């Protein structure tokens, strides 16, 4: 996700949707890549929710953040079980 913007506040609603769709279909083969995508998805939907007061967008943001957090926890647990290596 090299094109991810750190600051999404300058993007319009349609630009946020385009940014999300540009990342949506990219292949993700590792848990870390999927976790990064879910974190990005969370940021996109949180920006939409903040801008529009949309409760559905806020719910999608929370779910995406939970998915990201779960994947990062799985990665950390795997590293511990494998002696710190991947």
Arithmetic mean pLDDT: 89
Report the β-strand fraction as a percent range: under 5%
Continuous helix count: 3
Number of strands: 0
Helix/strand class:
mainly alpha
For the terminal residues, how far apart are their CA atoms?
A: 21 Å
Which percent bin holds the helix content? Answer: over 70%
Secondary-structure element order, N to C: HHH
Largest sheet composition: none
Which consecutive residue ranges, at least 5 long each, have pLDDT under 50?
none
Instruction: Report the radius of gyration as a whole number of Å.
Output: 14 Å
Shape annotation = elongated
Salient structural properties:
86 residues; 3 helices; 71% helix
Summarize the structure.
This protein is an all-alpha fold. It has helices spanning 13-24, 31-52, 55-81. It contains three helices and no strands.
Report on this structure:
The structure is a single chain. The mean pLDDT is 89. It contains three helices and no strands. The protein has 86 residues and is mostly helical. The chain is 71% helix and 0% strand.
Itemize the secondary structure elements and their pairings.
Blueprint lengths: L12 H12 L6 H22 L2 H27 L5
Helix pairs in contact: 1-2, 2-3
């Amino acid at each position: 996700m090299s094109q991810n913007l750190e600051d999404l506040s300058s993007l319009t609603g349609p630009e946020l949707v385009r940014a999300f769709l540009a990342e949506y279909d990219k292949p993700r083969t590792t848990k870390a890549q999927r976790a990064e995508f879910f974190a990005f998805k969370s940021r996109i939907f949180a920006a939409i929710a903040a801008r529009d007061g949309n409760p559905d967008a806020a719910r999608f943001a929370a779910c995406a953040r939970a998915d990201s957090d779960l994947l990062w926890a799985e990665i950390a647990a795997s590293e511990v079980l494998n002696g710190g290596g991947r």
